């Protein structure tokens, strides 16, 4: 690490007797509310000098040990309390991967407040909506994203210039927190007595309609983080590279999972493939998370080469295609395919079976692309029939790998509610009713039943869930249901295809037929230049041997790029608009 | 595996639609009570055909896949319900490591009942006391231990001949459960709605007074098991050898931790060192648990040699001496030193520090013998001053590695209570008061504060706890407090010493002086035969260079064996009786 950096005086912890928050009164001796905030205190106690957070690819690099980082988190909590933040208040955070947002995942919880993690790729009008809807009481914003803020604001804004040096407004804020603490330390902050209290507030990117605010619980975040550390095997010797934005579903709970595992975290402000490869090759990276679209960028970067040590890639957000899995494995990246939504952390995982070892890479990849079985600390993930004649009882589809149903989930990792939207919350749950229970002198109302993911899937005889499509992604071709995902999986196996997306296009005879949008691999662009007709023919022939007739694409269109949401999901709604005009 | 064995017809699961218990009414969609029973259902769903349980070193070997084992567990639950067992009832289990007791850790929970795990090394009168005090409603007993039962019993007794074959009374019991289930499967059993319900009942071995019944909770057992799997790195490719008796503090929660991790478990009826070495060398063993006394037996067995693959040994029950740690590491056994009591699962762990790598093996071992810091899912472990002038506020001792205090703990892994003994329960907790809370329509009274372990310790500047002794193990020699544990640590470093125990003996001048009982290593017995005086001189000289004068043993006595409790703890109370007569 460069020796030019030393943390601000306020970041240096005192020789502390014990890192523990004030225990709330009245809790039984054998009941501790689950809270992922515990992890940073434990890491700072056990490995105070270990490198915890590295932010190196910026003008002002910083690196914090667990002890120093833990002190900064404490400072943030006190600074928020001094700024008038009360338990349950929302603290908006608008930042790329950087110490600011890493701090917020712990420090805001330490103030018993709720970080509202805002996507930096949104438009100012969307940010304004979220700030207003969440009623955030203060805004922590990175200097590059202040233009997203509305011109007039009634709440305080703290800007981070991402320097970690004295004079930076965020650093001054932390220093003010330290001063305000009067060295009461962690014992001056109270441990949140309610494990069902909100942990984070993240808004869905909502391809249609207003974004909805997903509220997670502390209990769910704790259990999801522990499960992620366990399933991904994150430990003291691990180094995690932040490619996935931390604002995306609270970084899939990895901001806490990494601390639980005592891993070193490296934050990258942007998805910069050459930089990612620099860290892969020089920083002993062992883990990272990313959606398939990012994984495609990684394996196709010119710097990509066989890794000296294997790296585990947690893949979620969409199913990886067989060809992507093969490309990752070829260079030593071991994909761990998990499935989740903003509404909870990773909820299922593809569990490799010993019997797959004897399969061809292609067949094995097909199995690996399935969403699999419930995660370590998740509970039910079921595929059920749609409601019938008003009867909303959950009936599982047969385990035949064919019958399409909807994925529903329940258990500790499921979200608490949509923020200030009881109607959408009620709609999101199925097969239950409103009930209530007492916990710690408080009466809580809640919906029983299961969370309705809106994802369509089959369940295979071995119990593995495999998403076929979201309901609107099914193409009804000649009366048959063709899964656009299954078609994409097959088209992606063509050696010239980098990325592909398939939507339904109206057809006079068949009702609907698949229309494929294809991005060619860089090395194949020249080959097909001016001959897209020939490529179309070749890809159709490729499909014919692999798909039933009704699922073969009727049209193939080569494009330079695909429209994507700010979180990297392909915007099929935009592709449908394009084909509607054809 | 031998092909001569096939499970009984009742053990063969049907092609099941879904392995899930009936969900209790009224639970919120995002709240699932924590319960380690979940693990076996999940393992059977994801890895149905994986080898789960191997019991091979017996006349009738058996081996069960997760699917078959899970069915047997279900059968046990139905059989218990058919036998009239209600939620909360105690089911006594008297068995060595074998499928019977492995089944009970899951199957009794599936009936919402509480396994009362009885030490097979107790006397009939002690067993009678426990059966009576626990008011167990049924007894599951291994055929070799029926003599422990009182001659007249009012409850049903199911004997296992440990054959796994039809005709075995235990197998008939399971078959009756299957018949009674009418193939309702898991859906016919209700999931325990209360995560704070009792999980297990284990009686302390109580060197003085009546044994006390320690009640653990489902929530605590779940979190302890997950932590053990995480900390020990137990995964699909792991094979766990059962040397530690499962009845000992519920096998330190490893009966569930192994299933959480999808590990294969091998059960050994007795601690048989040649057999242990057979499995170490031929069965791909990766993990086992054992107290130091068992570890000493392992490293000193004639079959001991350098292992082809490293094995992780979870060491608890007492601190391993530096010389034991060195002996283990020399042959490729990696010790993981944890600390706990019957009153909870492993609660602290010795966390290795990178800086230790540069230390001499002796110095490193001294650090490794410390009890360390709280475990992954544990909460507080503190060293506090004794109550002062009636004031029971918990005040931490300074982190100076010198000031002796008492270890107190709180958090989810702490026991719930002493069974039917509110007085002992109240005494066991310190620094709190009686409070209450509502959970799921039920009012629960509980003691706040911390559990009082009775173990004396110091806390080092790095926050690591190091036990010096239980209060009665301190030797007050010339007004100085000498730790018998510290003396034992130093004496054990002598090359001729296999095992050593030190107690206080009255001394005219100094008040008390240390008296050491020593077992010589097998290879050193001949050397000192008839010359124990010379050995005494040599060991005293050895001690002189390592210990302050007041802590040097005044007397050294060579013995053939040391008196031990049924769980392998050295009975210092008996040694004190011996020296009292001298």
UniProtKB/TrEMBL annotation, chains A, B:
Keywords: Fatty acid metabolism, Ligase, Lipid metabolism. GO terms for biological process: fatty acid metabolic process. GO terms for molecular function: ligase activity. Residues 42-419 form the AMP-dependent synthetase/ligase domain. Gene3D superfamilies: 3.30.300.30, N-terminal domain of ligase-like. InterPro entries: AMP-bd_C, AMP-bd_C_sf, AMP-binding_CS, AMP-dep_synth/lig_dom, ANL_N_sf. Residues 487-569 form the AMP-binding enzyme C-terminal domain. This is AMP-dependent synthetase and ligase. It comes from Mycena albidolilacea.
